[in-house]
Amino acid sequence: MADVFSLGTYSDDAYASSNGPSKDTGDLRRKYNFGDRVSELNIAQDPFFRFVSKVAKKPTDDPEFKFTERRGSYHKRYAYITAHGADINVSTTGDATVAEGALDQGDTYYFKMGTDYESAGNIGNISGQSTGAIAVGAANTAPQFFLENQIIKINTRAENEGSAFTVPTGYILAKVKGEPTAVSTTHQILKCEIVKGEAAAKDLMWESASAAVSTTYNKTIATDLEPKRCYVVGSAHGQGTGYPSTWKDQPFSTGFGLTQIWKTAMAMDNTTRATVLKYDSNEFARIWREKLIEHKFDIEQSLLFGAQGTVDSVQYTEGAVDFITSYGNIFTGTGMGGTGSKAQDDFLDDMSQFLDPRYNNANATLFMVSTDVYNWLHKLSGYFTANMQKTDLGSSNRFAGRSDFSIGGKKNVFGVDITQIYTPYGVMNVSRNIHLDGTQVKMLAVNMKYCAYRPLVGNGLNRDTAVYVGVQTLENSGVDRRVDLIQTEAGMEWQMPEAHAVWK
């Protein structure tokens, strides 16, 4: 998907008064389709609906729509050691230490390996998300990728460093000999030949089964998990040998969403309609336009705070806050825009984890923030300046400044003002969203590549936003008034929860 924030300044010329909503309410009994044009109204107050309806509109022909997710596996060829030993029984489970001489080049050693993600769908843990947390060695997590002649990198540390050590001092290379031995659906046991050894007694970079590595969702990837992960780092084959074994992943998982029906009515008696007023003579036309804005305002609120389900035969669609809080990345927002412990360095750590290029990127991500956080982010300019790297240009005492963390200018994308904040992990495209003010949510990060606005369209009927003029009139009801109806039926599709985040 292209970078949606590199489209330049959006022009509303195509939606000038001759084509867009106006005071001319049109002929009675006529239906007006406003699916695209309604998003042009009140843009600053409804940035998310504006974005998702422009970037990710995907009609559905079913009010209960299905979709398929696909995750790559090439970056998930890692596992954790849960036991090890000199024979296939791998009886060592409570001690990380490998005795002197056991890891010399050419020695044979056994490792019991488990992962923290399910093989079907490549579904793994998400930062801060206890819902659906996957323990190392849980059912259906046995690593499927280990093959004969693969080389495994295993980090080591000096002996007796204890279970809290996090920084390796070296590593061994172990070559898989023969086919791995499956242990139910939870583990694989690898018979390995040591290719690069350690002469002295060493601790393996692992934690025993009783330690916290068993639940990785509450761990920091870079500092807590990466040192303990054993990665495939290639393979080695003898001359004249045949083709190797192979494997395939199961990258697909499925989900579903529901459409929701929004309705807004405009009613006025005909006496008031016929009365000419000062400043804005046509009161009906004025209120009619405001009702369109009100309708869009309601949709924005639902797309942010809605909760998916069916109650008394009424369907409700899933909002960003509910979806991300339930399934996505969760970071602490305490101190962002107010009192608390959140510091700039902590925020940078959050970005490094959320924008891990193996799982996510900033190019298609919209960061929506409350007003106090919007102000807080702009106040970070002092922090950026203080952390600027300076290079002495010589005796003139001139310096060339370079900053990987800085605030850029504003740009207008689809009519929404976007502030760009440059980080070492990508550009944050930030939009103030007043609907987050006064809530527990400080910031939402929504990857526009993995969500969609799904209006119901099928059998010649378009249920996207439409205005039905004259659903009640004096002519068709005998009641001396006119009623118009604004109606939308659509839902939100949410995929890849690891690509979205909330700070609260």
Q: What brief labels describe this structure?
A:
34% strand, alpha+beta, 31 strands, six-stranded antiparallel β-barrel, 504 residues, elongated, 2 domains
Rg (CA only): 29 Å
Summed up, the helix count is 9
Spatial gap, N to C terminus? 29 Å
Indicate the structural class.
alpha+beta
Count the strands? 31
% residues in beta strands? 25-35%
Provide the helix percentage.
10-25%
Order of strands across the main sheet:
18-31-25-19-24-23-22
- Characterize the overall form: elongated
The major β-sheet equals: 7 strands, mixed
Describe the structure.
With 504 residues, the protein is of the alpha+beta class. It has two domains: 13-69 and 257-503; 74-235, no CATH class. The chain contains nine helices and 31 strands. The strands form eight sheets. A seven-stranded mixed beta sheet has the order 18-31-25-19-24-23-22, with helices on both faces. The longest helix has 23 residues, at 283-305.
